[in-house]
Amino acid sequence: MISIKNEVGYFMNIGIIGCGVVGLANATLLAQNYKVFLWDIDVEKRKLIANRILPLDDNSLYEIWLKYDLNYEMCSSKDSLIDLSDIIILALPTDLNKESGNLDTNIIETIVDDILNQKRNTTIIIRSTVPIGFTRSLIDKYKYVRILVMPEFIREGNAYIDMVNPNRIIIGGEIELSKNIYYLYRDAIAKANKNENYKLMIMQPDEAEAVKLFSNSYLAMRVAFFNEIDYFAKMNDLSTKRIIDAVCEDPRIGNIYNSPSFGYGGYCLPKDVIQTAKLLGKDAVLINSIHTSNEIRKLRIINELDSLEGTIGFFRLNEEKKETKSIRYSATVDIMRELVRRGRSVYLFEPSIVEKGNYEKVIFVKSLDELNSNCDVIVADRITDELAQYKHKIYSRDIDCI
Protein backbone atom coordinates (compact mmCIF):
# COMPACT_ATOMS: atom_id res chain seq x y z
CA MET A 1 0.00 0.00 0.00
CA ILE A 2 1.44 3.38 -1.04
CA SER A 3 1.61 6.04 1.68
CA ILE A 4 2.34 9.72 1.23
CA LYS A 5 3.92 11.37 4.25
CA ASN A 6 2.72 14.79 5.41
CA GLU A 7 3.50 16.78 8.52
CA VAL A 8 0.17 15.72 10.01
CA GLY A 9 0.48 12.01 9.27
CA TYR A 10 0.14 9.73 6.25
CA PHE A 11 -2.11 10.11 3.26
CA MET A 12 -2.69 6.79 1.64
CA ASN A 13 -4.57 5.59 -1.41
CA ILE A 14 -7.32 7.83 -2.72
CA GLY A 15 -10.38 6.45 -4.47
CA ILE A 16 -12.70 8.51 -6.64
CA ILE A 17 -16.13 7.20 -7.57
CA GLY A 18 -17.66 9.08 -10.48
CA CYS A 19 -15.60 10.13 -13.49
CA GLY A 20 -17.44 13.17 -14.73
CA VAL A 21 -16.02 16.70 -14.66
CA VAL A 22 -15.76 16.87 -10.86
CA GLY A 23 -14.28 13.40 -10.44
CA LEU A 24 -11.69 13.78 -13.18
CA ALA A 25 -10.73 17.30 -12.09
CA ASN A 26 -10.00 15.92 -8.62
CA ALA A 27 -8.17 12.94 -10.10
CA THR A 28 -6.06 15.12 -12.40
CA LEU A 29 -4.91 17.24 -9.46
CA LEU A 30 -4.43 14.52 -6.85
CA ALA A 31 -2.80 11.93 -9.13
CA GLN A 32 0.16 14.26 -9.53
CA ASN A 33 0.89 13.81 -5.83
CA TYR A 34 -0.82 10.61 -4.67
CA LYS A 35 -1.97 7.21 -5.87
CA VAL A 36 -5.53 7.51 -7.16
CA PHE A 37 -7.99 4.73 -7.96
CA LEU A 38 -10.98 5.47 -10.18
CA TRP A 39 -14.31 3.81 -10.88
CA ASP A 40 -17.44 4.80 -12.78
CA ILE A 41 -20.61 2.90 -13.55
CA ASP A 42 -20.19 3.76 -17.27
CA VAL A 43 -18.25 0.87 -18.85
CA GLU A 44 -17.21 2.83 -21.95
CA LYS A 45 -15.90 5.67 -19.83
CA ARG A 46 -13.89 3.18 -17.76
CA LYS A 47 -12.32 1.76 -20.94
CA LEU A 48 -11.31 5.18 -22.21
CA ILE A 49 -9.75 6.24 -18.92
CA ALA A 50 -7.94 2.91 -18.57
CA ASN A 51 -6.37 3.64 -21.97
CA ARG A 52 -5.33 7.13 -20.84
CA ILE A 53 -8.02 8.81 -22.96
CA LEU A 54 -9.87 11.72 -21.39
CA PRO A 55 -13.63 11.20 -21.94
CA LEU A 56 -14.42 14.92 -21.58
CA ASP A 57 -14.18 17.96 -23.81
CA ASP A 58 -12.12 20.10 -21.42
CA ASN A 59 -8.85 21.57 -22.66
CA SER A 60 -7.63 22.46 -19.17
CA LEU A 61 -7.79 18.80 -18.13
CA TYR A 62 -6.56 17.49 -21.49
CA GLU A 63 -3.33 19.51 -21.33
CA ILE A 64 -2.41 18.03 -17.95
CA TRP A 65 -3.22 14.51 -19.13
CA LEU A 66 -0.77 15.04 -21.98
CA LYS A 67 1.87 16.71 -19.86
CA TYR A 68 2.07 14.32 -16.90
CA ASP A 69 2.14 10.60 -16.37
CA LEU A 70 -0.63 10.73 -13.81
CA ASN A 71 -0.51 8.14 -11.04
CA TYR A 72 -4.00 6.71 -11.40
CA GLU A 73 -5.52 3.31 -12.02
CA MET A 74 -9.00 2.40 -13.21
CA CYS A 75 -10.54 -0.28 -11.02
CA SER A 76 -12.50 -3.13 -12.52
CA SER A 77 -15.16 -2.90 -9.82
CA LYS A 78 -16.46 -0.59 -7.13
CA ASP A 79 -15.64 -3.20 -4.49
CA SER A 80 -12.00 -3.31 -5.50
CA LEU A 81 -11.76 0.48 -5.27
CA ILE A 82 -13.23 0.36 -1.76
CA ASP A 83 -10.72 -2.31 -0.73
CA LEU A 84 -7.78 -0.32 -2.08
CA SER A 85 -8.75 3.15 -0.84
CA ASP A 86 -8.27 4.85 2.51
CA ILE A 87 -10.01 8.02 1.35
CA ILE A 88 -12.95 7.84 -1.06
CA ILE A 89 -14.20 10.91 -2.92
CA LEU A 90 -17.76 10.75 -4.22
CA ALA A 91 -18.27 12.86 -7.35
CA LEU A 92 -21.69 11.61 -8.35
CA PRO A 93 -24.66 13.22 -10.10
CA THR A 94 -27.56 14.53 -8.06
CA ASP A 95 -30.21 15.21 -10.66
CA LEU A 96 -33.30 17.19 -9.77
CA ASN A 97 -36.46 15.24 -9.08
CA LYS A 98 -38.90 17.51 -10.92
CA GLU A 99 -41.89 16.23 -8.97
CA SER A 100 -40.45 16.80 -5.50
CA GLY A 101 -38.09 19.69 -6.31
CA ASN A 102 -35.32 17.90 -4.41
CA LEU A 103 -31.90 16.72 -5.53
CA ASP A 104 -31.82 12.95 -5.99
CA THR A 105 -29.24 11.53 -3.57
CA ASN A 106 -30.11 7.85 -4.01
CA ILE A 107 -26.83 7.03 -5.79
CA ILE A 108 -24.74 8.58 -3.03
CA GLU A 109 -26.75 6.89 -0.28
CA THR A 110 -26.36 3.49 -1.93
CA ILE A 111 -22.59 3.87 -2.38
CA VAL A 112 -22.02 5.16 1.16
CA ASP A 113 -23.92 2.10 2.40
CA ASP A 114 -21.74 -0.15 0.23
CA ILE A 115 -18.54 1.48 1.51
CA LEU A 116 -19.42 1.25 5.19
CA ASN A 117 -20.70 -2.30 4.93
CA GLN A 118 -17.42 -3.29 3.32
CA LYS A 119 -14.93 -1.13 5.19
CA ARG A 120 -15.53 0.95 8.32
CA ASN A 121 -12.23 2.84 8.53
CA THR A 122 -12.54 4.80 5.29
CA THR A 123 -12.83 8.58 5.10
CA ILE A 124 -15.66 9.57 2.74
CA ILE A 125 -15.64 12.97 1.04
CA ILE A 126 -18.82 14.08 -0.72
CA ARG A 127 -17.99 16.48 -3.55
CA SER A 128 -21.46 16.31 -5.11
CA THR A 129 -24.05 19.02 -4.56
CA VAL A 130 -26.50 17.73 -1.95
CA PRO A 131 -29.45 19.13 0.01
CA ILE A 132 -28.75 20.94 3.26
CA GLY A 133 -28.73 18.38 6.08
CA PHE A 134 -27.89 15.42 3.88
CA THR A 135 -24.37 14.74 5.16
CA ARG A 136 -25.47 15.08 8.76
CA SER A 137 -28.21 12.54 8.12
CA LEU A 138 -25.59 10.02 6.91
CA ILE A 139 -23.35 10.67 9.94
CA ASP A 140 -26.29 10.12 12.27
CA LYS A 141 -27.61 7.09 10.39
CA TYR A 142 -24.30 5.21 10.45
CA LYS A 143 -22.94 6.69 13.71
CA TYR A 144 -19.82 7.43 11.63
CA VAL A 145 -18.10 10.82 11.78
CA ARG A 146 -15.60 10.19 8.97
CA ILE A 147 -17.99 11.57 6.36
CA LEU A 148 -17.21 15.06 5.09
CA VAL A 149 -18.83 17.33 2.53
CA MET A 150 -16.51 19.42 0.38
CA PRO A 151 -18.44 21.50 -2.17
CA GLU A 152 -16.67 22.17 -5.47
CA PHE A 153 -16.68 25.43 -7.39
CA ILE A 154 -15.27 24.44 -10.77
CA ARG A 155 -16.55 25.36 -14.21
CA GLU A 156 -16.92 23.01 -17.12
CA GLY A 157 -14.25 23.87 -19.66
CA ASN A 158 -12.01 25.30 -16.93
CA ALA A 159 -12.14 22.44 -14.45
CA TYR A 160 -8.42 21.99 -13.83
CA ILE A 161 -7.68 25.72 -13.82
CA ASP A 162 -10.30 26.18 -11.11
CA MET A 163 -9.02 23.19 -9.14
CA VAL A 164 -5.51 24.65 -8.82
CA ASN A 165 -6.70 28.24 -8.39
CA PRO A 166 -9.39 28.07 -5.71
CA ASN A 167 -10.45 31.21 -3.88
CA ARG A 168 -11.65 29.15 -0.95
CA ILE A 169 -11.66 25.56 0.21
CA ILE A 170 -14.82 24.68 2.11
CA ILE A 171 -14.95 21.53 4.21
CA GLY A 172 -17.89 20.51 6.38
CA GLY A 173 -17.22 17.95 9.08
CA GLU A 174 -15.16 17.01 12.12
CA ILE A 175 -12.41 19.61 12.57
CA GLU A 176 -9.24 17.49 12.80
CA LEU A 177 -10.30 15.23 9.96
CA SER A 178 -11.19 18.27 7.86
CA LYS A 179 -7.73 19.72 8.48
CA ASN A 180 -6.08 16.51 7.29
CA ILE A 181 -8.11 16.54 4.08
CA TYR A 182 -7.23 20.19 3.60
CA TYR A 183 -3.52 19.36 3.86
CA LEU A 184 -3.99 16.72 1.18
CA TYR A 185 -5.43 19.29 -1.24
CA ARG A 186 -3.07 22.04 -0.11
CA ASP A 187 0.01 19.96 -0.91
CA ALA A 188 -1.37 18.88 -4.29
CA ILE A 189 -2.24 22.47 -5.23
CA ALA A 190 1.16 23.73 -4.06
CA LYS A 191 2.95 21.17 -6.22
CA ALA A 192 0.77 21.84 -9.25
CA ASN A 193 0.55 25.61 -9.08
CA LYS A 194 2.37 26.98 -6.00
CA ASN A 195 -0.87 28.78 -5.18
CA GLU A 196 -1.56 29.66 -1.55
CA ASN A 197 -3.85 32.61 -2.15
CA TYR A 198 -7.07 31.02 -0.88
CA LYS A 199 -8.93 30.59 2.37
CA LEU A 200 -9.61 27.39 4.26
CA MET A 201 -13.04 27.46 5.86
CA ILE A 202 -14.00 24.52 8.07
CA MET A 203 -17.61 24.46 9.22
CA GLN A 204 -20.56 22.23 10.04
CA PRO A 205 -21.69 19.94 7.19
CA ASP A 206 -25.04 21.75 6.89
CA GLU A 207 -23.22 25.07 6.51
CA ALA A 208 -20.92 23.74 3.80
CA GLU A 209 -23.91 22.37 1.88
CA ALA A 210 -25.63 25.75 2.20
CA VAL A 211 -22.54 27.55 0.84
CA LYS A 212 -22.77 25.63 -2.44
CA LEU A 213 -26.50 26.07 -2.92
CA PHE A 214 -26.51 29.76 -2.05
CA SER A 215 -23.42 30.43 -4.18
CA ASN A 216 -25.06 28.93 -7.25
CA SER A 217 -28.35 30.67 -6.48
CA TYR A 218 -26.54 34.01 -6.33
CA LEU A 219 -24.82 33.38 -9.67
CA ALA A 220 -28.15 32.47 -11.24
CA MET A 221 -29.72 35.59 -9.72
CA ARG A 222 -26.95 37.70 -11.21
CA VAL A 223 -27.60 36.26 -14.68
CA ALA A 224 -31.32 36.96 -14.29
CA PHE A 225 -30.64 40.50 -13.01
CA PHE A 226 -28.59 41.58 -16.01
CA ASN A 227 -31.04 39.90 -18.36
CA GLU A 228 -33.78 42.06 -16.84
CA ILE A 229 -31.67 45.19 -17.36
CA ASP A 230 -31.32 44.12 -20.99
CA TYR A 231 -35.10 43.67 -21.32
CA PHE A 232 -35.77 47.09 -19.82
CA ALA A 233 -33.22 48.78 -22.08
CA LYS A 234 -34.54 47.04 -25.19
CA MET A 235 -38.18 47.95 -24.43
CA ASN A 236 -37.22 51.60 -23.92
CA ASP A 237 -34.78 51.90 -26.83
CA LEU A 238 -31.81 52.44 -24.51
CA SER A 239 -28.28 51.04 -24.64
CA THR A 240 -27.96 47.88 -22.57
CA LYS A 241 -24.18 48.07 -22.76
CA ARG A 242 -23.90 51.64 -21.51
CA ILE A 243 -26.26 50.98 -18.60
CA ILE A 244 -24.53 47.76 -17.54
CA ASP A 245 -21.04 49.21 -17.94
CA ALA A 246 -21.96 52.15 -15.70
CA VAL A 247 -23.76 50.02 -13.12
CA CYS A 248 -20.79 47.66 -12.87
CA GLU A 249 -18.29 50.46 -12.26
CA ASP A 250 -19.52 50.30 -8.69
CA PRO A 251 -16.93 47.99 -7.05
CA ARG A 252 -19.64 46.50 -4.87
CA ILE A 253 -21.24 45.13 -8.03
CA GLY A 254 -18.16 44.44 -10.13
CA ASN A 255 -17.61 44.03 -13.84
CA ILE A 256 -17.92 40.24 -14.06
CA TYR A 257 -20.65 37.75 -14.91
CA ASN A 258 -22.73 40.60 -16.28
CA SER A 259 -23.33 40.01 -19.99
CA PRO A 260 -26.96 39.39 -20.95
CA SER A 261 -27.72 35.96 -22.34
CA PHE A 262 -30.59 33.77 -23.39
CA GLY A 263 -30.85 32.64 -19.75
CA TYR A 264 -28.77 30.51 -17.44
CA GLY A 265 -28.53 26.82 -18.19
CA GLY A 266 -26.14 23.96 -17.65
CA TYR A 267 -26.32 21.10 -15.20
CA CYS A 268 -25.89 22.96 -11.90
CA LEU A 269 -27.60 26.33 -11.75
CA PRO A 270 -31.18 25.35 -12.68
CA LYS A 271 -31.40 22.41 -10.30
CA ASP A 272 -29.56 24.13 -7.45
CA VAL A 273 -31.83 27.18 -7.59
CA ILE A 274 -34.93 24.99 -7.49
CA GLN A 275 -33.51 22.94 -4.61
CA THR A 276 -32.62 26.07 -2.63
CA ALA A 277 -36.09 27.49 -3.14
CA LYS A 278 -37.60 24.18 -2.07
CA LEU A 279 -35.58 24.15 1.15
CA LEU A 280 -36.42 27.76 1.99
CA GLY A 281 -40.12 27.47 1.23
CA LYS A 282 -42.56 29.75 -0.55
CA ASP A 283 -41.83 32.73 1.71
CA ALA A 284 -38.29 33.04 0.25
CA VAL A 285 -39.52 35.50 -2.37
CA LEU A 286 -36.16 36.41 -3.92
CA ILE A 287 -34.85 32.86 -4.42
CA ASN A 288 -38.19 31.65 -5.73
CA SER A 289 -38.28 34.46 -8.30
CA ILE A 290 -34.93 33.55 -9.90
CA HIS A 291 -36.22 30.48 -11.73
CA THR A 292 -39.37 32.35 -12.79
CA SER A 293 -37.29 35.23 -14.19
CA ASN A 294 -35.14 32.79 -16.17
CA GLU A 295 -38.12 30.99 -17.67
CA ILE A 296 -39.69 34.32 -18.67
CA ARG A 297 -36.39 35.36 -20.26
CA LYS A 298 -36.32 32.25 -22.44
CA LEU A 299 -39.96 32.75 -23.43
CA ARG A 300 -39.29 36.36 -24.46
CA ILE A 301 -36.38 35.25 -26.63
CA ILE A 302 -38.52 32.50 -28.18
CA ASN A 303 -41.36 34.90 -28.97
CA GLU A 304 -39.01 37.46 -30.50
CA LEU A 305 -37.31 34.89 -32.69
CA ASP A 306 -40.66 33.42 -33.70
CA SER A 307 -41.79 36.88 -34.82
CA LEU A 308 -38.90 37.15 -37.30
CA GLU A 309 -39.39 36.17 -40.91
CA GLY A 310 -37.31 33.60 -42.71
CA THR A 311 -35.28 30.60 -41.71
CA ILE A 312 -33.53 30.48 -38.34
CA GLY A 313 -30.11 28.99 -37.78
CA PHE A 314 -28.36 28.35 -34.47
CA PHE A 315 -24.61 28.75 -34.10
CA ARG A 316 -23.50 26.39 -31.33
CA LEU A 317 -25.52 25.43 -28.26
CA ASN A 318 -23.03 26.27 -25.55
CA GLU A 319 -24.15 27.69 -22.23
CA GLU A 320 -24.03 31.37 -21.32
CA LYS A 321 -20.26 31.17 -20.62
CA LYS A 322 -17.88 31.62 -23.56
CA GLU A 323 -15.19 29.45 -22.08
CA THR A 324 -17.24 26.25 -21.94
CA LYS A 325 -18.31 24.00 -24.77
CA SER A 326 -20.96 22.30 -22.67
CA ILE A 327 -24.45 22.01 -24.15
CA ARG A 328 -26.03 20.04 -21.34
CA TYR A 329 -29.34 21.64 -20.37
CA SER A 330 -28.40 24.83 -22.23
CA ALA A 331 -31.00 27.60 -22.39
CA THR A 332 -30.27 27.76 -26.13
CA VAL A 333 -31.38 24.14 -26.51
CA ASP A 334 -34.71 24.94 -24.82
CA ILE A 335 -35.22 27.91 -27.15
CA MET A 336 -34.36 25.93 -30.28
CA ARG A 337 -36.63 23.03 -29.39
CA GLU A 338 -39.58 25.31 -28.68
CA LEU A 339 -39.17 26.99 -32.07
CA VAL A 340 -39.18 23.55 -33.71
CA ARG A 341 -42.29 22.65 -31.73
CA ARG A 342 -43.94 25.79 -33.06
CA GLY A 343 -43.25 24.62 -36.60
CA ARG A 344 -40.29 26.79 -37.49
CA SER A 345 -37.57 25.46 -39.79
CA VAL A 346 -34.40 25.41 -37.71
CA TYR A 347 -30.83 24.77 -38.85
CA LEU A 348 -27.95 24.04 -36.48
CA PHE A 349 -24.18 24.18 -36.66
CA GLU A 350 -22.89 22.25 -33.65
CA PRO A 351 -19.96 19.96 -34.48
CA SER A 352 -19.74 18.59 -30.93
CA ILE A 353 -23.03 16.70 -31.31
CA VAL A 354 -22.56 13.09 -32.38
CA GLU A 355 -25.93 11.63 -31.39
CA LYS A 356 -28.45 13.65 -33.38
CA GLY A 357 -31.51 11.66 -32.37
CA ASN A 358 -32.20 14.02 -29.47
CA TYR A 359 -32.73 16.92 -31.88
CA GLU A 360 -35.78 15.86 -33.82
CA LYS A 361 -36.60 17.95 -36.92
CA VAL A 362 -33.47 20.08 -36.51
CA ILE A 363 -31.46 20.34 -39.76
CA PHE A 364 -27.74 19.93 -39.10
CA VAL A 365 -25.14 21.69 -41.23
CA LYS A 366 -21.41 21.04 -41.39
CA SER A 367 -20.04 24.59 -41.45
CA LEU A 368 -20.81 28.16 -40.55
CA ASP A 369 -20.81 29.04 -44.25
CA GLU A 370 -23.48 26.41 -44.86
CA LEU A 371 -25.50 27.80 -41.95
CA ASN A 372 -25.25 31.28 -43.46
CA SER A 373 -26.32 30.14 -46.92
CA ASN A 374 -29.44 28.42 -45.57
CA CYS A 375 -30.60 30.93 -42.96
CA ASP A 376 -31.94 34.47 -42.76
CA VAL A 377 -31.14 34.78 -39.05
CA ILE A 378 -28.19 33.29 -37.15
CA VAL A 379 -28.81 32.90 -33.43
CA ALA A 380 -25.79 32.97 -31.12
CA ASP A 381 -25.89 33.25 -27.34
CA ARG A 382 -22.27 34.38 -27.39
CA ILE A 383 -20.40 36.32 -30.07
CA THR A 384 -17.06 34.91 -31.19
CA ASP A 385 -14.53 36.17 -33.73
CA GLU A 386 -15.65 33.70 -36.39
CA LEU A 387 -19.10 35.35 -36.48
CA ALA A 388 -17.75 38.80 -37.44
CA GLN A 389 -18.40 38.46 -41.18
CA TYR A 390 -22.03 37.43 -40.56
CA LYS A 391 -22.80 40.31 -38.19
CA HIS A 392 -25.71 41.56 -40.33
CA LYS A 393 -27.57 38.28 -39.71
CA ILE A 394 -26.76 37.73 -36.03
CA TYR A 395 -29.38 37.65 -33.31
CA SER A 396 -27.78 37.78 -29.87
CA ARG A 397 -28.11 39.55 -26.52
CA ASP A 398 -24.38 39.34 -25.83
CA ILE A 399 -23.13 42.65 -24.47
CA ASP A 400 -20.41 42.66 -27.13
CA CYS A 401 -23.00 43.28 -29.85
CA ILE A 402 -25.80 45.28 -28.20
Give the CATH class of the largest domain: Alpha Beta
Calculate the mean pLDDT score and round it.
Answer: 92
Quote the beta fraction: 5-15%
Query: Number of helix segments?
Result: 14
Instruction: Categorize the overall geometry.
Output: globular
Coarse structural class: alpha/beta
Rg calc: 23 Å
Q: pLDDT under 50 segments (min length 5)?
A: 1-5, 319-325
**Count of DSSP strands:** 17
The CATH architecture of the largest domain: 3-Layer(aba) Sandwich
Instruction: Provide the CATH topology of the largest domain.
Output: Rossmann fold
Portion of residues within helices: 40-55%
- Terminal CA distance reads 59 Å
CATH homology-level superfamily of the largest domain: NAD(P)-binding Rossmann-like Domain
Spatial strand sequence of the major β-sheet: 5-4-3-6-9-10
Tell me about the largest β-sheet.
Answer: 6 strands, parallel
Q: Provide the domain count.
A: 2
Report on the architecture of this protein.
The longest helix has 31 residues, at 205-235. It is built from 14 helices and 17 strands. 43% of the residues lie in helices and 14% in strands. Strands 5-4-3-6-9-10 form a 6-stranded parallel β-sheet, with helices on both faces. A 5-stranded parallel β-sheet has the order 15-14-13-16-17, sandwiched between helices. Strands 1-2 form a two-stranded antiparallel sheet.
